[in-house]
Backbone:
């Protein structure tokens, strides 16, 4: 994805990788979950796999863990994946204006993110 993960989940990205951490945050963002002492046999392991469950249990065993929302990071990751602004806004739960502000760098000190260009259709003639 090539976007640096926020400090809140840097430990998770180091343990399981950026894609697995993104999937976990995207599906559980904002929720508070009870983390078991051991990952083996837990619902966390059944849903997200052994590697992620072990990492979360190692850090937050026998306590509650609120998965951060990380809206700006999720917006930037979705844009790099090629999603439209309207779809990003619906998925993240923010306005389209907020998505544009994050992508233009207004919200924070990140660089501007643009959607990857679509390849030209070779069957179509040039207009100019």
Residues:
């Amino acid at each position: 994805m090539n976007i640096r993960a926020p400090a809140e989940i840097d430990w998770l990205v180091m343990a399981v990788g950026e894609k697995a951490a993104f999937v976990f945050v995207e599906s559980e963002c904002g929720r508070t979950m009870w983390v078991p002492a051991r990952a083996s046999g837990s619902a966390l392991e059944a849903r997200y796999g052994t590697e992620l469950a072990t990492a979360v249990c190692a850090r937050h065993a026998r306590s509650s863990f609120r998965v951060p929302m990380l809206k700006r990071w999720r917006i930037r990751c979705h844009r790099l994946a090629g999603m439209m602004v309207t779809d990003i806004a619906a998925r993240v739960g923010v306005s389209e204006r907020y998505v544009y502000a994050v992508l233009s760098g207004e919200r924070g000190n990140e660089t501007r993110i643009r959607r990857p260009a679509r390849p030209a259709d070779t069957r179509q003639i040039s207009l100019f």
In short: Residues 97 and 127 are 33 Å apart (CA to CA). The mean pLDDT is 90. The longest helix spans residues 18-28.
